[in-house]
Amino acid sequence: MASVRIGTIAAVPEDAGTTFEVNGRKIAVFRVDGAFYALDDACSHDDASLGEGEVDADELCVACPRHGALFDLETGKARTLPAYKPVAVYKAWAAGDELFIEY
Ligand code: FES
Fold this sequence. Notes:
Oligomer: single chain
Number of strands: 10
Helix content: under 10%
Distance between the termini: 5 Å
Strand content: over 45%
Number of helices: 0
CATH superfamily: Rieske [2Fe-2S] iron-sulphur domain
Structural class: mainly beta
CATH topology: Rieske Iron-sulfur Protein
Number of domains: 1
Bound molecules: FE2/S2 (inorganic) cluster
CATH class: Mainly Beta
């Protein structure tokens, strides 16, 4: 695992997600309450982009934009059907204005 700079924190609005490409893999990064969460961008049900999903800041989860499965931002676990497999999570953090993940 290595620290990879993926962009700036300005690219990720509060309570929303943005998709970055890291070494050819799409990673969705979310910002809630100033903290960053990184998940594989592809929904485990049918590959929809989780970075385009709606964030529930109170429940710390994102809703898949295609069929609505909820994924936990901290663990990547699928909380609701139709997804039942987790997605990978990565440590994400800000250093100044820069955004990093452990990848
Ligand atoms: S593609 Fe995500 S729930 Fe179906």
